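*** Fold description ***
***
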Amino acid sequence: MGSIINDIQVFLLNIFFVFIFFYLYLKFIEGKISRLNNELVMTLMSGTFIILCVSYTVLTKADHLMEMRQIPFLIGALYGGRRVAVYLFVILITYRFYLGGSGFYIALAINLSLLIASWYIIPLFQNAVNINKKVYLTMLAYFSIILAKILVISLFFSELINVRFVTLVSAFSVVQLFSVTSFVYLIEKSRKQTILANELRKLEKLRTVSELAASISHEVRNPLTVTKGFLQLLREPDLTDQDKLNYINTAMDALGKAESTITDYLTFAKPSLENIKILDLHKELLYVENFIDPYAAMNNVQIQVRLEEDIYIAGEDQKLHQCLINVVKNGIESMPQGGRLLIELRRIADNAMITVTDTGIGMNEEQLERLGSPFFTTKDIGTGLGTMVTYSIVKTMRGEIIVKSEIGKGTSFSILLPIAENSLSPTEDNLGNLSTPPL
């Protein structure tokens, strides 16, 4: 009984060796190195696990051939190619010869048949695109091992044949066949999922670019159409000076809207900081409050502030203003019937937290997940570029955005930014490392 338990433990250890090998290969190696280096790594890793499998055999003495060495050999050969198959054969036979024992010639004959079978199957396997066909070819290669075992033992080692031996060989062969085909199936499924994920990422990027182009085109074309129309009207000879002035002002306003849209797009496309300096958040938030207060009054929204002092960050004031104004403006627009908007500033450990809380309509979980995505907006009009730009600016400043919301109760929009000491001067030495490359 103890011998059977020991055999099972060693068998599971062999399975573990093989699993670790292919997990490491798929996770960290495949597709990340050149073909020549791939063959080298495949040879080294397969060879290592072949040696481990040979070292920890399930049976002993005359039955020592019962181990899992054929699995890393076969899969290493199928995925590595013919040269890898030859290298692995040499490694296996050399190590087997080093171990000695009467079963060396059995191992030589069996693995030589596997090498020959693999030599012809490898090109078919690597050119196959169907998973089932690859599994079928793997089974075909493994059947060469079984046939070689039967032939060699029947001709030269007939004294080994008994009920126990035949039962063990049959059971072990079935387990090996199941293991090797399972590994091939899992590898191919993993490859397919990786390819599918990459294709989905490409399609998502193309979809984003398409939507971005359509949105920018729409937002820019409308004011340009307005401008074109009023410029055409200026050709009318009977226009009064006042009409001309009105037409010019309307055209300029439309061009300003188009310029604003393009600026938002460029900020999102290239949100790098340029004129970095130390900013006093207390003063910056008071500036934002004064700037947005008339807009809040127009919408019957009361703004309250709770600001701690002596909290400084490193950043660009114009980008910070753009970011904060977008957040505050969105909060005001979420309260169509009026309400209260609270702007808070406080220090949390090494971060400054700016929180804008409104009493508006709120958002559900699905809307929260999509917040900051291109072209997503909860407003009836708008492109969503403002929120998208806000996320880009905060990310460039190495900050984080946390949003909490409840339908009918309002939204809390918190921005965490790393604190800079007031004693630091905005020199290139102190602040240059804060610049991030364009996204």
Notes: The chain is about 65% helix and 10% strand.
